[in-house]
Amino acid sequence: MIKTLTAYTDEIDDVEVAVSDILRHLDCENSLLRNSVGIVSCYSEYIGAGVLAALAEKLPFPIAGTTTVACAVPGMMGPTHLALMVLTSDDVEFEAAVSGPISTADEAPLRAAYNEAAGKRRIPPVFMISFVPLLLDISGDFFVRTFNDITGGIPNFGTLAVDHTSDYREARTILGAEGFPDRYVFILLYGNIEPLFFIANISEEKAFREKGVVTAARGNLLQTVNDMPISDYLASIGVLRDKEGHIIGVNSFPFILDYHDGTQPVVRVMFAIAPDGSAVCGGDMPLGSTLTVGKIDAEEVLKTTDKILRHIQKQKKRGGLLIFSCIGRYFTLGYESLREMQKIADTLSGGIPWHLMYSGGELSPVCGVGGELINRNHNDTIVMCLF
What confidence tens digit (pLDDT) does each residue in 266-285 have? Predict the structure, then answer.
C-alpha cells in the first residue's frame, strides 16, 4: 500500500520560508511510513535560488522530478510554484537515480544508471517513474524503447522536462539538490504495487474523417502520407495554407497514430514543416501506421480531462494520483491557462491526493490486445497514474 502526501510553496526568494512551508504541510515526524520518496515539480528559478538544495538537506527521503511551466496539488496551482508529492509505504520500496550526461541516442548511460540502481536489491523493480531531459535530437520514443530493453518492459510512467522560457533553455530534470539539462532521472519501485493508468488525448469528434497511411518517414520526420508530401496531404483534406503555401496553425493539428497492434492510438504533435517538406513530429512515425489528423482547442482539453476524471472517480484505489499533461494543452487554454488544473481540483476536491505537472511529452503504458501493458511515448495527451 502507498500513502500519499502533498505540499507546496510559492516562496522563491526566502529559502527558510519555502522549506518551512513544505515541512509544515508534510508533518514528516507523524506522517511518514518506513519507505518514502518525493516527486517534485517547480518553476526553474527554485533551483538557482537554493530552495531545492535546502529541501534536499532537510527532507528524510530523496526527491526527484522536473521543472515545468505550471503545476498543481490540492490547495495550490500556478506557474511560479513548487509542488511536492510524497509516496510513503511500509511494503513498497523506492530507489531514485540519475544517468550520466546524454548527448546522443546511446543506451550506455541509461543502462549503467539502471544497473547501478537496480543492483542494490536482490529482486527486480516492478514499476518506474521517469523524468526525461528535453533534448533536441532525441525523442521520447528512444527512451521508451531503451528502457523496455533494459528492464524487460516493466511499466514506465513519466514526463519530459519543460520550463517557462520560449526555447525551454532552463528545462531540467531534478534529483535532490541538482537540476540537469541532459540527464535521465528515475524512481524504481519494488514490492506489492499495481498502478492503474489512464490516458486521454483527442476525441473522435475532433478528428478529420479521412485516414492516411504513413508511406515514408525517418524517425520523427514524417515525409509522405499516401505517397503524397505531407503538406500536400494536409491541404487535400482541408487544412488551409497561407499565400506562401505554408500550413496555417501547424501546431494545432496533431496526428492520431494507430500502430495496428491492438493498442490505443497515440498522438503525435507536429512542431513544424522542415525545409525539405517533412513534418517534424514529437515522436516516431512508424511506416504503415494509420494517421488521422485531429484538432485541439480549449473545449477539447477540458472535455477530455473531464472524461478521464470520471474514470478515476469510479476506481476503488485511493492511494494517490500523479498527472502529466502536455504543455500543448496548457497553451491551448490561452489566457485561461489554469482551467484544466481548476477542473481537476474541483472534481477531486476533498478526495484523493493528486499532483499535476505540465510536460514536453508523456510516457505511459497502454493496454495491448491481451491486456498486457505496452509502454508508449505520447504528445498532446493527459496521462494519470493511480496508486
Answer: 888 887 777 888 888 888 88
Asked if residue 26 lies in contact with residue 7, where contact means CB atoms within 8 angstroms, the answer is: yes
H or E stretch at 330? helix 327-332
**pTM higher than 0.85:** yes
CB half-sphere exposure, 122, CA atoms < 13 A? 0
Smallest Cα–Cα separation from 68: which of 88, 49, 83, 54?
A: 83
From residue 226, alpha-carbon distances to 59, 233, 247, 284 in Å are: 55, 8, 18, 17
Task: Quote the longest CA-to-CA distance of the chain.
Answer: 65
pLDDT value at position 251? 64
What residues have CB less than 8 Å from 58, skipping those under 6 apart? 19, 23
Q: Cell numbers at residue 232, please?
A: 500536400
Rounded Cα–Cα distance for residues 373 and 157 (Å): 11
Q: Is 23 helix (H, G, I), strand (E, B) or coil?
A: helix
State the alpha helices, DSSP H only, in 27-77. Answer: 28-31, 45-48, 51-58
**Looking at 201-320, which runs of residues are DSSP E strands?**
207-218, 221-225, 228-229, 255-258, 266-268, 270-273, 279-281, 290-294
- Specify the residue for cell string 482547442: 297
pLDDT digits (tens, 9 = 90+) for 1-17: 899 999 999 999 999 99
Say how far apart CA 142 and CA 159 lie, in whole Å: 14
- 361, 302, 378: which is closest to 333 by C-alpha? 302
Closest C-alpha to 168, from 361, 370, 12:
361
Give CA–CA dist 91/5, Å, rounded.
Answer: 17
Which residues of the chain have a pLDDT value below 50? none
